[in-house]
């Protein structure tokens, strides 16, 4: 009986760990490519763009610190797009 409880607890820990790993975001600025037209023009963001911004939100500060990405990610239009998508831009 005790061994089955230990096995059950071990399985629960493994399942929780797997869920947390699968929920981790891979920071890839390419994921924001559906937002390019909304950021570079005054077009409204698409639903795909908004979902990608929400997905990449934990990475935005990292992108802002990258000199090659900062001019796009930290622009007023990028902030407008994030705001329109209901994803406030983080303070970095």
Automatic annotation (TrEMBL):
GO MF: lipid binding
Domain Bifunctional inhibitor/plant lipid transfer protein/seed storage helical: 27-92
Gene Ontology terms: biological process: lipid transport
Record-linked InterPro entries: Bifun_inhib/LTP/seed_sf (IPR036312), Bifunc_inhib/LTP/seed_store (IPR016140), nsLTP2 (IPR033872)
Xref: Gene3D superfamilies: Plant lipid-transfer and hydrophobic proteins (1.10.110.10)
Top-level taxon: Eukaryota
Keywords attached to this entry: Lipid-binding, Signal, Transport
Signal peptide start and end residues: 1-24
PANTHER family found in the cross-reference section: BIFUNCTIONAL INHIBITOR/LIPID-TRANSFER PROTEIN/SEED STORAGE 2S ALBUMIN SUPERFAMILY PROTEIN, BIFUNCTIONAL INHIBITOR_LIPID-TRANSFER PROTEIN_SEED STORAGE 2S ALBUMIN SUPERFAMILY PROTEIN
Name of the featured protein: Bifunctional inhibitor/plant lipid transfer protein/seed storage helical domain-containing protein
